[in-house]
């Protein structure tokens, strides 16, 4: 572990990513499903665009001209690995939307020992990792035709996450984040409890489920799932893009537009939750917004309180939201950031206990290998005990880690 000369606390990142090894599902699915289950095929790309918040790749046929990459094939889905999935180690101006193979990515993207080595370089002790091929809340399996196979794929991913990615080789430094079958809240509750029994304290969920064709959280449909999270102390983790619709302004808006306003879905989602009544219905429930940043939060809380105070009579919340939204936020919601100097200058308006740190490895936005330097520059005005809480203590308490910041499946 690299601790040279710095007094900056060892980082616990609540938002990194894993690129799943090619054999995750082929090793774990029943034999009769392996031909239909997710598998890797090497093929050229015919065309690939990312406009208006929509990623549209088209796989070419063997022998076609075009760059060759590794593609996930699953039912009718053809999804390539891209440089944006794993961009660390490349100069920012060299990062393009292009297909790649496993050999062309940094091994820490998919290999546990290599990941730990890259964490050492970056002053990171522990990390919670979101998926890549399943997408950020497992919507790949929700959109599939065969939900019997989809459920097996969800469980196979979770078994790999707990037993291998976060297994003995990780020495407690990788923190499990599991998936649920989003199409069935009862099955989702079962999966939450199955994983909680082996020490998992975080589950991925969609920031805006109706964008996936699923019920909103204003319904009672999700109550079995939310009850399981409430009972087991499982945090509902929502990553930007977990609704499969990144914010944009037009179909021809360049990716830079969406990249600037990525926090918007988190903003909309947080207001949904604060006005849903679910935090009063499930008093132990906690939610976190990965990669949403935090600087926008103070105004939204101010506005939500005004609306609740002045408009709740006709606003549809008087019978279910009985306390100011800002109070509910303080008890139930966590914002996650990796580069937000403005938010750090306004911690008093956000809440010191509601802020978590992240590095976003291995994505193009990642601060790797300088997450410590970025943190030192942006938190230099804060007292050491405040920095300790942001960088470590809040995550330890939220995710049920050991006092020294490690995951122990027996806890």
Short characterization:
This protein has about 400 residues and is an alpha/beta fold. Helix content is about 30%, strand content about 15%.
Write the layout of secondary structure elements.
Layout: E1 11-17, E2 39-51, E3 54-59, E4 68-74, E5 77-80, H1 112-121, E6 124-130, H2 139-142, H3 147-165, E7 174-175, H4 185-196, E8 202-204, H5 223-232, E9 235-239, H6 255-260, H7 264-274, H8 278-281, E10 287-290, H9 297-311, H10 325-332, E11 333-337, H11 341-344, H12 347-350, E12 355-357, H13 371-379, H14 384-399
Parallel strand pairs: 1-6, 6-7, 8-9, 9-10, 10-11, 11-12
Antiparallel strand pairs: 2-3, 2-4, 4-5
Structural summary, described in words:
With 411 residues, the chain is of the alpha/beta class. It has a single domain, classed as TIM Barrel, CATH 3.20.20.140. Helices cover 32% and strands 16% of the residues. It has 14 helices and twelve strands. The longest helix is centred in the middle third of the chain and has 19 residues. The chain is globular, with a radius of gyration of 21 Å. It starts with 10 loop residues before the first strand and ends in a 12-residue tail after the last helix. Keywords: Hydrolase, Lyase.
Number of strands: 12
How do the helices and strands follow one another from N- to C-terminus? EEEEEHEHHEHEHEHHHEHHEHHEHH
Uncertain segments of ≥5 residues (pLDDT<50)? 1-5
* Terminal CA distance: 24 Å
InterPro entries: ACMSD, Amidohydro-rel, Metal_Hydrolase
GO molecular function: carboxy-lyase activity; hydrolase activity
Protein name: Amidohydrolase
Pfam families: Amidohydro_2
